[in-house]
Amino acid sequence: MDLGKKVVNRVSFPALTKEKVLQLIDWLEKEKTLMEKEKQTFVRVDVLALNYKRIKAKNFYYVDFRVRNESLKYIERKYNPFVIRENKIFKVNYTLGTCVRCESITDFTLIFEEDPELDSTKEYIMETVPPVEIVNRQIRILKEILLGQHPALKLILFGTHQPVQYKDVIESISPKLNSFQKEAAKRAIGAEDFHLILGPPGTGKTTIISELCERFAANGERVLLTSWMNVAIDNALMSVLKREKLDEKLICRIGAGDFKVTEDILSLTLTGTLIRSEIQRKKIVGSTLASAYKAVIDSNDLFDVVIVDEAGAATVSQTLLALVLGKKFILIGDHRQLPPVVSDENCSDWVRESLFEKLWRMYPQKCNMLHEQYRMAPQISDIVSDMIYHDLGGIKTSESVKSRSTPFESVKVTKNLDPYERKLINKAPICWVDSSGSMKWINFSNSHSAKNDHEVENIDKLLEVLVEDAKIDPKTIGVLSPFRYQISTMVKALERFIEKGVSINTIHSFQGNEKDIIIISIVAKQSDDSRIFDDVRLLNVALTRAKFKLMIVSDVNIIKGNDKTSEIMSKLFKSARENDAYVAKDKLNISQNEEIRKDTINDLKIADTQKFLVKEKNKLKFYRKH
Length: 626
Description:
Layout: H1 18-38, E1 42-55, E2 58-67, E3 89-92, E4 95-101, E5 107-112, E6 123-128, H2 132-146, H3 151-157, H4 179-190, E7 194-198, H5 205-218, E8 223-227, H6 230-243, E9 251-254, E10 269-270, H7 273-278, E11 284-288, E12 303-308, H8 316-323, E13 326-333, H9 349-352, H10 355-362, E14 367-369, E15 372-373, H11 378-388, E16 396-397, H12 399-402, H13 419-422, E17 430-434, E18 440-444, E19 447-451, H14 453-469, E20 477-481, H15 484-493, H16 495-500, E21 503-506, H17 507-510, E22 515-521, H18 537-543, E23 546-554, H19 564-578, E24 582-583, H20 594-625
Parallel strand pairs: 7-13, 7-14, 8-11, 8-12, 9-10, 9-11, 12-13, 15-16, 17-23, 17-24, 20-21, 20-22, 22-23
Antiparallel strand pairs: 1-2, 1-6, 2-5, 3-4, 3-6, 4-5, 18-19
Helix pairs in contact: 1-2, 2-8, 4-5, 5-6, 11-19, 14-15
């Protein structure tokens, strides 16, 4: 399938070779060099809330932070960004904390195992603590594979493995699973070596995981459940607990979940000496990929099964952190969503590809796909199915979704809205607000990003109608954009809505989340304005976050290209027009935001000055050499 201009036939030979392993090691060494530069970065933060929970004589401290306004220019923006992301470690007041929640680019939660002794009336400096130790572990595993360790895994990775026949499964599978889920569960249980499950958005990956954990444990097998995301692990463990089929004493979590979202997981948490003394008694152990090594005491203590969730978004070496700890593995993910995040823009496409995608193409007989989704309105799902998953059999919408009520059926507006404002809150699942703004680029060195001030002003109006007039719960609304610069601009301009609970984030950071209403700021006028639209996986993630309503804010010219992105946008536009949910340019009574427009002018001046200084510096180097 053509997933975009730049990804057609980009990797002809997915199997590893000695040369490719050495290439991965070289790339990881470069990553370590980049991490050294990260040590010099920081932002200023305010403390919003302090909480702690005592579990098994151990206190966990949860702190909600917000980035101060003067530090916003460093967050996910322009050049040299300070990136706040789940699982990253930061230092605040000389104490290390791990990010366990990051729905917004400004608001996030850190968990500390030691009291950080913070005062909610003071501001603090937060520094990045690069995960050099984790990268070193990845390098060590790759070198072990080259030296002949992990022989079974090496055969699979190098494409020389002869897949073992599936054993017959006599266990009864939950009747609550649909036919696709049942088939995937049976094959995963019956696999003697490994199995892959592709789960498009909303198709019930968590349901599959909880079923597998339950069945493996019933067979006396121990399971290591991992992901690069804390929230994915906690959601899966919560699903297992809710089924009430497994004794809670047989389940544990290494690390901890979010105080606000998964409080019940805390009672399962093991830390310090508790890990070594109790972990061998557990049947289900949940951990991030980075912490998975703590679950195995020695090489003779391997898990029977390793399950990796969100495997399509983890690099090869990240995934191997968990796979070397088990006798067989199950990868669950979706390579038609975003690939792994790789900071080095110059590394090869092969390095950027997940192990899930490589094995999907190397061993098609070892794969299953879930085809029934329970999240999106049918109109959204049908477009995604036709444009992204059609060559894999497509996805269909569950009847339960088709018959559910929407938040817009009970809307009671507090004032008289004009006909165009009413288009924003009708029952149509796809809305399009045509924007006439111009795209402004910030370029510096190899880094660049863009913004569109007029789209920000349109989104301000959308949120005003949704939150203030229609009384839609702001916590059910997410605002996304593919451009970091646009996000930081919206964070500043839409602060009053963020205070009420609206999430504003990059598409990359929102994978794995969902909201009732998703607003997407496209920024560009045409799909060829930026390479970011070359790969439609980004667009796939953005569209599939919405449960009830998808609102596109974009110049309608973006539908006029000949590429995949334009074709998808054209289908969205057509749906909005057919359902009276298209708002033509300048039909909303929006107000200009003079502050962000002045910021744009200042930012462009700063970027031009920086480019001039770099040029002069390079000239000086040239003359010194000659």
